[in-house]
Structure prediction request, 167 residues.
Amino acid sequence: KVDIASVSLHSCLSQLRDNLWDLRNGLAAGENLADAIAKAAKPHLHGASLHLDIDTGERRFSESFAHAVVCAVREGVINAVRHGGARNVFVSGSRSGDGFAFSVRDDGCGFDVAACPGVDEGHFGLQGARERIRMFGGELELESEPGKGTAMRFAVREEQAPKGDDP
Prediction:
């Protein structure tokens, strides 16, 4: 029980830092999505390399949509480095049908997705990312195997979120 409490406390502190970051960091005036993702991921790389391939054209997104995407991608980067020990994290984003598709892949240790710890074990990050993505009509998918890295994917539509709803 002490181990679970310790993990929960560490996770809560980490989540609190992320929530404070969320409150302070919207897209800066003129900032594009790739720059926002790079800025959000940088403090969490701890020596890993970030490879960005974001092609959303010249599209400017609503603050709530961009914030949800950046936070979900940031969670993928955090998990890749913190839990997967990744040395390289690959983030891609592009137009897909009437929306946009994003992925975060890594060269980390991978894991058994069916045994992924969640809220009951004090891990809230992926649940938060799932909730943000659902607001824009998407579902977050994880694909991983021990020893083979991890891929997190989601597709979203900006118009999906209720007006005035800010994650």
